[in-house]
Design goal:
two-stranded antiparallel sheet; 21 helices; 49% helix; 5% strand
Length: 464
Amino acid sequence: MKRFTILKALPLHMLALLLLCMTAGCEDYIEVDLPSSQLTASMVFEDKATATAAVTEIYAKMRSSGMLSGSAQGLSAAMGLYADELEYYGASTYFAASFYNNAVLPSTSQVGSWWSGAYNQVYGANAVLEGLAASQAISQADKEPLIGEALFCRALLHFYLLNVFGDIPYITTTDYRVNRVAQRMPSPEVYQMIAQDLEQALTLLPEEYITQDRTRPNRAAAQALLARVYLYSGQWQEAADMASAVLNNTALYSEEPVETTFLKESNATIWQFSPAAEGQNTAEGATFIFISGPPSFATLRQELMEAYEDGDLRKVHWVKEVPGDGGPWYHSNKYKERAATGATLEMSVVLRLAEVILIRSEARARQGDLIGALEDLNRVRQHAGLDDTQASGASEILEAILRERRTELFTEFGHRFFDLKRTANLDAALDPLKPGWQPTDALLPIPENELITNPNLGSQNPGY
């Protein structure tokens, strides 16, 4: 992908050109044929089909590149290496080695790629919002879900930027004159703006899915993300209430058997990425699966293996043991396909039911509703084939929830690292494992070229 930053945003008319230059990765999202002639920016938003294509292009970019990619360059792999989920066996010159060895620098390529990729995708969301606001041809009824989707994307991207980099700019325009002098905002203010976008999205997104494969977010997807935002920002009652709104929607969501949780038809999926083309599966499968040891990229750490209790069905179905010299080795087996199949079997799941249950469990425990917290925690455990927890008292229950999140959400978009950080357990977990670990390593550095280009971003994160 061509590199863009919030400081050098594309002019709005380039969005139209992007629609004419779609990669194969966007085809499954678009589902319409674009006109053969060059589109102007106004033409993009004079037609529902091309406006929809502008929205779904954002999902295609998120799936294929940047932080939410399931490739080795995405959060699932890189932050798994940075935390205590994955052990690295790749080349020492690959960027992933710097994550595993706690040697990330402001000049590390992946740091810059995440920053610029996310803000490029934010730019796309803002272009959609501005284009729809100016459109006179698209009806309000057709505009509203598209606006809701763009707001959802903008909130989601800023959420990950915030949790990776700390204080960040919240970008709400395509105006380069504003963006090139953007200032970083304190984290509480960023959380507030994320919540505002999601709260507005809730009023615009439909309850039912626009597409049957759940690849375009509905109201529950915004509710699930908002529940997470409230949890991370310490708004316990709001987190519990928003999680309940999702969990009460039993017509759409229910637990699947552990072995089928990550199949594309799973009723436990709240939102997932469509593949680039029919027959393709997930990048996660290609990234994590290996057939002989030692692995060429990474293996699950022994500490994670030891965190599983006897009889845990997640270890049976979501972890695969691989023999080989120096083994046994283990890889994430949530996604079973590492190559194309005749028809797509798996899609990359971004939001799912178990996380929402655990959000409500934690939010309840932090408010003193220990009975409700245990009900939710045990619901997840029972689904995994385990007995009810023996934890009692708020601190024990919260520790049990964190352990459950570890074994449930491993190698999914950095959950483990973010959980350790927000619960003040990061230093205790990583100091024994990472050379030269310091508390300041809870944040990655701001890319050095961004600080040079825009002095308004302020000083580098401490420790770099």
